[in-house]
Specification:
The complex is a heterodimer of chains A (756) and B (445).
Chain A: H1 36-47, H2 68-73, H3 75-86, H4 99-113, E1 128-129, H5 132-143, H6 173-190, E2 197-202, E3 207-215, E4 218-230, E5 237-248, E6 255-261, E7 264-271, E8 279-287, E9 293-298, E10 302-303, E11 314-326, H7 335-340, H8 347-362, H9 368-383, H10 388-401, H11 403-406, E12 407-408, E13 418-419, H12 422-433, H13 440-447, H14 454-466, H15 471-481, H16 502-521, E14 534-537, H17 539-545, E15 556-559, H18 572-577, H19 586-596, H20 616-619, H21 623-627, H22 629-632, H23 634-648, E16 662-663, E17 666-667, E18 671-673, E19 679-681, H24 682-691, H25 694-710, H26 719-730, H27 736-744, H28 747-750, E20 751-752
Antiparallel strand pairs in A: 1-12, 2-11, 3-4, 4-9, 4-11, 5-8, 5-11, 6-7, 6-9, 10-11, 13-20, 14-15, 16-17, 18-19
Chain B: H1 15-19, H2 23-26, E1 43-48, E2 64-65, E3 83-90, H3 103-111, H4 131-139, E4 148-151, H5 167-171, E5 175-177, E6 180-181, H6 188-196, H7 205-230, H8 235-260, H9 278-294, E7 300-304, H10 323-327, H11 333-359, E8 361-362, E9 365-366, E10 371-376, E11 392-396, E12 406-415, H12 416-426
Parallel strand pairs in B: 1-7, 1-10, 3-12, 4-7
Antiparallel strand pairs in B: 2-12, 3-11, 5-6, 8-9, 10-11
Classes of the chains: A alpha+beta (756), B alpha/beta (445).
């Protein structure tokens, strides 16, 4: 195995590091201490060989400057250094460091980088653009059009694990083009512009085929042929088709014509009339915006050149014009139309409707001036000879493209942190819990200035969680926190895992989502994510798990027998998305646990590390034996000693989460030894180990919730707020809704800090 | 208007057959409005492949005129005289330079910018403006689309894309500005509708003009909104809104261009849907690029065959494990063989694109004659993650305009930016700088 010392490339880096700039040094956060000398000695001996400016191993740079000032300016760096030393992960091959030395270093640094919570500020969120999901949901709730244009938008940028962070979401020209396009299409779908078609087609307005020839202004068919009149109607409905035509009659039959819509004949007429007195033939048909053409066909050509009667020799057919008129009935109006249009076309009513729509689109009261500017669009449409419906379309189109709609605007206060307005709080709540805009209840509480009252926040939280829109939390929050969205792109080897079909994958997703919703809705302690005696399964998942048959196509709660399943870590979704296509990856599983359960993500591996052999059979070694090399090399061991044992405990679950007792014929050994010598035995041992750290897990989940809710990463200063949320939920063993309540009543959620 | 610019035809390959439509339907003419161009403009295209290539099967044996092609280049045999293989080019700013792991993300971000990206998994992404966008900036008045960004893989999933680097770096080679990645379109239908319009072509002139007037008033409204909002925002938020303003103005410019535009007429088929087959997907995107060039809707195009670090499997050639995992071959023979097969599969798609460029008519001559196409990636060996001695092909000129048919060996470490500067020079864009580029690349043309 090769490792990265020789390379300029480095083998440890922090996933996310926020240096000075976010955290302003504050007088008093670091007490100048006398024992800088001891810290300096430790750093020089154990840290600077790697963590130099040039190498920046793990993104950590420590120099000879270990002064209190440096520490105050680089809180995040020092916090990471302290954590690494405390956990024994650093320095690598740590045996050389005396425990007392280690403790002294940790104590000294810890004492000085602690955050003074009196100085903690609520933090500041950068202007947040609606992401794809939020856009679609908002359009649905604003207009009643459930059209999913967002699915075709470019992917949203992801940072710190989520796709709803203000600083991270960018806006490219292509994205803007899509917004404009969607705005137009949505307004056309939402509001119908009444349109009466009355059009006559003559001569070159139509095209001919077969025996059809244009003679002057009349289409003549001397043999079987047809003409086509191109259609363009905007509204579906019943239309009248009139054909003015005549025949040159001959033979036993009267002239016949067929009328068709897009090639399908729906009416046949006898055409007994003649040139001196052409007839008008009228029929009705349903047309829609996709209808392309009306065809008129000569059906019964007749030619007997030898007939003694010259008038009986040749039957021909002539069309003078085709007319289309309609729709004949009042069109059926979509719900969105009734919802958005004014009660009457009077100026006062239109103004009212425009103001109401603008307020909901901007999620805040709008000024008279703003309404007046929108009214200009209605007036312009009128000037162009268009009806008020077209004017309202333009208003909706403009609102949907406006920055006040596409971004969630919260203005800065120059003088310092401020409370958010009630309307801003309404939007924060609705986008957090629903990934959508505030509804009437939230807006009206905000109008009355009452939303921020704690009792109202509590009752709104309850109400909103009971609403079906809260499913967005499972989709968007859990989908990203647990990385469930990855399941859509991982591809277990189809040769080896024939059971793994898209349907089974959906069943797996269904299990984890339902499980999340259950814990949330029933306000269970979040430690139930780690172990439980129940799960959610549908028919195919119950078969896959070997459970008694579940006669349901959707996941239902099932009691689990002792042993194999229970908790998210033993769910097939998580086990699959942390595997390679052909084998399990204890490293990925261990990493997943460190990141999402314990909140201590390991640094990424060095480049050039190579991978362990894929196949147990070919290498003749179990995966555990193959991974042993991680432990012998001190540079690998510092991280792998944390990851591998956690992942190895799940070895009884194959690459698609399938239960197994052997791997390609080799018996499974699912014990793992942690850095401190503690042994974890199998999945149940792992559950016990993690349950003992439930507080850490609750903290990880809270931190994730806060990032998702506020749209910004958490900094060291936010520890204070996280502590508050956790303290508030501790007595109930960290129930999910208690954590949520803590989040929505925290300063970072209800207040806005100043710009740096 | 040049009489030749009428009646030019491009048939979208097989569109009628795919959709089972009568030929008449499939060939409904759609006029692509572009500004009239009497001469044949030069175009530039960049095709990107991730995870490095197996250089052992890529590098021709000797410098000078191209002899027998190594395996990976074999599919390009027919275009040997139309391309140069360039070795030794380097993007040194893709190396860690103190930032630790993340070579995949860096290599794509640096490929056309030459600038070392800021390491961040979220806020404050920063690299530099890319060569294609430098060109687009100069050419934007001339065509309806300043540039076209295409790809075959959507970006963005949970988590960082690479060791603490934002997904924006792995998923974008085109950057309008240091902090604005240019989103790419991955669905052929969407590209088609963008280029040729989804609004019915039969709208009469008066109705179309009215519609444009009304649309323009919507644009005016939102610009006014943005301006007034801009004044109330603080610095950081203003940067975000700037992205919005720039984009809306770009759309406004295009609307104006469309109003006065007349120009080349191409006949295209129906909008294609996204195919299951990955190769077919790449080829369709190549078709879109060729059509856009032919109709002179744009002169600058980037096409990412896949995102950097892509771990897709290539089942169509019997490879079920992921590309990224294979690229970490650790000199394992089986993995190296698979890597080679994937590389070859990619060059096979390139061969199709070159074929289309060669067969497509550009005012009486092959489009390839007036195209400069760069193909390659920002990683050399996928296992070592090195960014020197990059796999780069330069194609174009149809064997006439440029001195092609050669393997040019540059001293290892020569900035790849120099190649990009040379191309910009050729486009008539002189004096631009790009990352660590030191000047034009000698001997290229």
């Amino acid at each position: 195995m090769r490792h990265g010392w020789k390379q300029k490339g480095l083998w440890l880096a922090s996933g996310a590091l926020f240096l000075a700039g976010i955290v302003k040094p504050q007088a008093g956060t670091a007490n100048p201490a006398k024992d800088d000398g001891a810290i300096n000695g430790f750093v020089k001996q154990h840290c600077t060989p790697c963590h130099t400016k040039d190498m920046a191993t793990a993104g950590i740079v420590l120099t000879a400057d270990t002064s209190a000032t440096h520490r105050a300016k680089n809180l995040e760096t020092w916090a990471k250094a302290m954590e690494a030393v405390k956990s024994g992960r650093m320095p690598p091959g740590g045996g050389k460091v005396k425990p007392s030395e280690r403790e002294a270093f940790v104590k000294q640094v810890e004492g000085q980088i602690g955050v003074d919570c009196r100085l903690a500020t609520p933090g500041r969120v950068t202007l947040r653009r609606l992401n794809r999901v939020e856009y679609d949901n908002t359009v649905r709730d604003l207009t009643g059009v459930d059209a999913h244009f967002g699915r075709d938008f470019p992917s949203d940028d992801v940072g710190h694990g989520f796709d709803n962070l203000g600083d991270v979401l960018s806006l490219s020209p292509l994205q803007m083009e899509k917004y404009m396009d969607a705005a137009r299409k949505i307004s056309e779908q939402a509001i119908l512009v009444p349109e009466l078609v009355k059009r006559s087609y003559r001569g070159e307005d139509m095209t001919g085929e077969g025996g059809a020839n244009l003679a002057g202004d009349v289409w003549a068919m001397a043999s079987v042929g047809a003409i086509q009149a191109p259609l363009k109607v905007k509204q579906r409905g019943r239309y009248r088709i009139e054909i003015q035509a005549f025949g040159q009659q001959a033979g036993p039959e009267v002239t016949k014509m067929g009328v068709s819509l897009d090639g399908r004949q729906f009416e046949v007429f006898d055409v007994p009339s003649t040139r001196d007195k052409p007839g008008t033939y009228s029929t009705e048909v349903i047309l829609n915006p996709n209808s392309k053409q009306i065809g008129v066909r000569f059906l019964n050509d007749y030619y007997q050149p030898n007939d003694p009667d010259p008038n009986q020799r040749d039957r021909n057919f002539f069309v003078i014009k085709v007319s289309v008129e309609g729709p004949l009935d009042q069109p059926e109006l979509p719900r969105s139309h009734r919802m958005l249009m004014p009660a009457s076309p009077s100026d006062a009513d239109v103004r009212l409707a425009v103001g109401r729509l603008a307020k909901r689109a901007y999620r805040r009261p709008v000024s008279t001036d703003e309404v007046s500017r929108l009214m200009k669009l209605v007036e312009l449409a009128k000037k162009e000879g268009e009806p008020v419906e077209r004017g309202m379309q333009l208003v909706l189109q403009a609102l949907l493209a406006s920055p006040n709609f596409l971004f969630r605007v919260e203005l800065d206060n120059a003088k310092g942190p401020r409370q958010l307005t009630d309307h801003e709080v309404a939007a924060r709540l609705s986008y957090f819990l629903w990934s959508s805009m505030p509804d009437e209840t939230l807006l009206s509480l905000a109008d009355q200035g009452k939303l921020r009252q704690p009792a109202n926040l509590q009752s709104q939280l309850n109400r909103m969680l009971a609403d079906p829109r809260a499913g967005a939390l499972a989709e968007n929050f859990a989908g990203q926190w647990l990385q469930l969205r990855k399941l859509e792109v991982v591809t277990p080897d189809p040769e080896r895992f024939k059971q793994y079909t898209p349907a089974l994958r959906d069943s797996m997703l269904g299990e984890t989502r339902s499980y999340f919703r259950y814990i949330l809705a029933n306000n269970r302690p979040v430690s139930e994510f780690l172990d439980s005696d129940y799960t959610f399964a549908d028919r195919s998942l119950s078969q896959f798990y070997g459970l008694p048959d579940v006669p349901s196509e959707t996941p239902v709660r099932v009691k689990l027998p002792e042993g194999r399943r229970g908790g998210i870590l033993r769910q097939a979704s998580i086990l699959t998305l942390t595997s390679n296509p052909t084998r399990t990856s204890p490293v990925k599983r261990g990493k997943w646990i460190l990141e999402n359960v314990l909140g201590t993500p390991p640094p990424p591996p060095p480049p050039d590390v190579g991978a362990i052999a894929d196949s147990t059979k070919i290498s003749g070694k179990t995966i555990k034996e193959r991974m042993a090399q991680h432990r012998t090399d001190p540079t690998c061991a510092s991280c792998h000693l944390m990851m591998d044992p956690l992942g190895l405990a799940l070895e009884n679950y194959g690459p698609i989460g399938n239960w197994r007792t052997d791997d390609e014929g080799f018996p499974i050994d699912s014990t793992g030894e942690l850095a401190d010598g503690k042994v974890i035995e199998g999945a149940s041992g792992l559950s016990k180990y993690l349950l003992a750290q439930r507080q850490k897990f609750a903290r990880t989940l809270t931190e994730r919730l806060m990032v998702y809710a506020t749209g910004r990463p958490m900094t060291r200063l936010d520890d204070c707020f996280l502590d508050e949320v956790l303290n508030g939920a501790k007595s109930g063993d960290y129930k999910f809704q208690d954590l949520l309540r803590g989040v929505i009543t925290s300063d970072p959620f209800l207040k806005r800090g100043t710009a740096p | 208007m040049n009489p030749n610019s009428l009646n030019r035809r491009a048939f979208l390959r097989g569109a009628g057959a795919i959709l089972g439509l009568p030929a008449l339907e499939a060939l409904t003419p759609v006029t692509a409005f572009a500004q009239s161009t009497p001469d044949r403009p030069l175009r530039m295209a960049f095709c990107f492949v991730p995870n490095g290539v197996h250089m052992g099967h890529w590098r021709p044996e000797s410098a000078g005129n191209l002899g027998d092609f190594p395996a990976t280049l074999k599919p390009l045999e027919a275009y040997k005289q139309h391309l140069n293989v360039l070795t030794g080019l380097t993007q040194k700013n893709a190396f860690a330079l103190g930032d630790g792991p993340g070579d995949h993300a860096r290599s794509s971000a640096v490929w056309l910018t030459g600038v070392h990206p800021r390491k961040t998994s979220g806020e404050n992404i920063q690299v530099g403006i890319s060569a294609d966008q430098l060109a687009a900036k100069y050419l934007k008045e001339k065509t309806r689309f300043a540039s076209l960004e295409l790809g075959c893989e959507r970006g963005g999933l949970s988590g960082d894309c690479d060791s603490g680097y934002s997904c924006a770096y792995s998923n974008s080679i085109s950057w309008t500005g240091p902090s604005t990645p240019n989103a790419k379109e991955t669905r052929p239908r969407a590209v088609f509708e963008r280029l040729f319009g989804s609004i019915a072509a039969h709208e009469d002139a008066a109705a179309a003009a009215k519609r444009r007037r009304l649309e323009h008033s919507v644009l005016d409204y939102v610009l006014e909104e943005a301006d007034s909002l801009q004044q109330r925002l603080s610095q950081r938020d203003r940067m975000k809104l700037d992205e919005y303003l720039t984009s809306v103005r770009d759309i406004e410019r295009r609307l104006v261009a469309m109003e006065k535009g007349e120009g080349r007429k191409v006949v295209v088929g129906q909008a294609p849907t996204t195919p299951e087959d990955f190769g077919e997907h790449i080829r369709l995107m190549g078709d879109m690029m060729v059509l856009a060039f032919q109709a002179d809707l744009t002169r600058v195009c980037t096409l990412m065959f896949a995102n950097e670090g892509s771990n897709r499997s290539y089942r169509q050639i019997g490879i079920s494990d992921g590309h990224h995992e294979i690229s970490h071959h650790g000199k394992d023979e089986a993995k190296l063989a698979k890597k080679r097969a994937i590389d070859e599969y990619h060059t096979l798609q390139l061969a199709y694109i070159l074929k289309r460029l060669k067969e497509t008519d550009d005012l009486g001559a092959p489009l390839l004659e007036r195209t400069m196409l760069v193909y390659g990636g920002g990683i050399s060996d996928g296992d070592r993650h090195n960014h020197d001695d990059l796999p780069i092909l330069f194609a174009g000129g149809d064997g006439k305009a440029f001195r092609t048919g050669r393997h040019i060996v540059y001293e290892n470490g020569t900035p790849m930016g120099n190649l990009l500067i040379s191309m910009l020079d050729r486009m008539g864009i002189r004096g631009e700088t790009l990352g660590d580029a030191t000047g034009p690349l000698p001997g290229l043309f």
